[in-house]
Amino acid sequence: MIDALPTDFLFPPSRISTRVDASLGSASHVGTRLHELGILSSDAESTVLVVGDLGAVEVFDRVEASLTACGARVEWHRIEPSESIKVQATADRIVEWAIERGVDRGTPILAVGGGIVCDLVGHVAGTLLRGIPLALVPTTLLSMVDAAFGGKTGVNVPLSGGRLGRNLVGGFHPARVVVADVSTLATLPDRDLRAGLAECVKHGWVDGEEHLSWLEARADELTADGAIRKIALRDLVRRSIVVKAGIVTRDPLERGERRFLNLGHTFAHAIEARPGNRWRHGEAVAIGLVAAAAASEAAGCAESGVLERTRALLGRLGLPVVLGDAPPATELRELMALDKKRSGRALRLVLPIRPGVIEVLESPAEEVVAAGWAAVGATA
Ligand SMILES: NC(=O)c1ccc[n+]([C@@H]2O[C@H](COP(=O)([O-])OP(=O)(O)OC[C@H]3O[C@@H](n4cnc5c(N)ncnc54)[C@H](O)[C@@H]3O)[C@@H](O)[C@H]2O)c1
What we know:
The chain is an alpha/beta fold. Helix content is 43%, strand content 16%.
């Protein structure tokens, strides 16, 4: 099944095709991938703009060497990522830096880092000069299996009262090249690695029984130390890429099945919008998956056992399944209104029915939403 990993997949509206290299060591070949597509030319010295996530500093030399080997001049801009700097002001600084380095419409910009840097640089690439070629070297599990694929870019919007509107400004600008090299995860802190597993669990639910059972069977290997984990992660990344690439190719603009990939996210984004939020995105997604499963059971949609199965797998993967500080459900319910997946003023929930069957529930009853929040420890 995982042999079906695409090497190129098309994003129909933009006609941009993404070349994927998910082989071990591929971070050292990003220059070659750009060269193959004619984005780097061997005739003239080309400039490549690289925005690097300081967490992924160990990967910088490999990327630089691969670009210079293809005759490129490399300009670096380094970033210490956080959700609070994933905002338009940071994008503006990157734009200014790029303009000062003589960017033109053919100049590629490359992000090396986690989902925050990939989203920020994607947003810049999609808007600067009305679009320049984008390449991504995701270096967190979450960005390898999710953020780097599918063309969504974006920044957060700081709102009154310390709230953060998640990804409210952005567009669709797919990368020309994505290099997902599991060996770059060697330095990733365990907490960030586990956070990425939440999006993989989401993919399991969306894809179906075989995928979800595979995750359950491999949960111990995915949390083990050493070589066993590396092999399991390589297989996991390939499985998740197949799921995401398939869905975004069929439904690039999220009018149908791509909405299923928002499973858990309406709850997660409310958690992340809270002032002083302490959860990683993937951790908020894990809690959101539990809340969505509970809401699905409360709505009478889910087959029996969906909530228990979701909780059990996330727990085994070392992910949070409750909010520790018992926030009021009313506050969280209000924050859900900031979610961009709502339709007009009505809320839209994405609910698991059984593995491989997901439904979008428009304007859910308040008891259904409340059941979701209660299941993750919010107070009534
Ligand atoms: N565009 C999309 O479709 C999409 C999909 C899912 C998530 N996202 C976005 O992705 C973001 C979350 O991404 P994330 O989980 O990668 O978090 P992140 O970008 O915050 O990275 C997590 C941490 O890991 C560090 N890091 C990165 N690579 C490292 C490495 N190899 N070794 C050591 N440390 C490393 C970073 O510096 C950071 O401290 C959110 O902003 C979310 O909205 C976007």
